[in-house]
Amino acid sequence: xxxxxxxxxxxxxxxxxxxxxxxxxxxxxxxxxxxxxxxxxxxxxxxxxxxxxxxxxxxxxxxxxxxxxxxxxxxxxxxxxxxxxxxxxxxxxxxxxxxxxxxxxxxxxxxxxxxxxxxxxxxxxxxxxxxxxxxxxxxxxxxxxxxxxxxxxxxxxxxxxxxxxxxxxxxxxxxxxxxxxxxxxxxxxxxxxxxxxxxxxxxxxxxxxxxxxx
Length: 214
Fold this sequence. Notes:
This protein is an alpha+beta fold. It has four helices and eleven strands.
């Protein structure tokens, strides 16, 4: 992949879903309220992004979040900026990186939507997490026999925008912007068929947004 294409890919904001458990823990000695914790990303786990000739496998290496743990990160519900749950700058969101992945934790704030989310997590109705990011450093391993098995290895993130408990992801394991898939196709330097038009990408973005807001 050329330097220009790496920079173009790194400039795109993306989101991923992890199937790691989101947990509720009751505050000791209190009748209500508690803490929410989960993993927004998992290390060394192969995730299939997209499908067909424009799909690829993605792996996040341990240490990839080390440079962004001090970013001003929000915890949001379903990536909705109107549903803020916590924030690192306010000291209400704790982020850490361990052998498993990127872990987050916050105390349920005294707002109605956060209390409703807490109950849904406790019941198991909400059980997945997501994070929004921009890639800093990555490398590719090409699979000439099956382009959908090209492997993208992320070693550093440039920024971490938010972590979010999510209700209903567009894909069960992950979501990705259509622009990211397009840049992967360009990076391969191959004329892959079938080719997708700008209208195809626009339709996919609208479909994914609708699913995320379902």
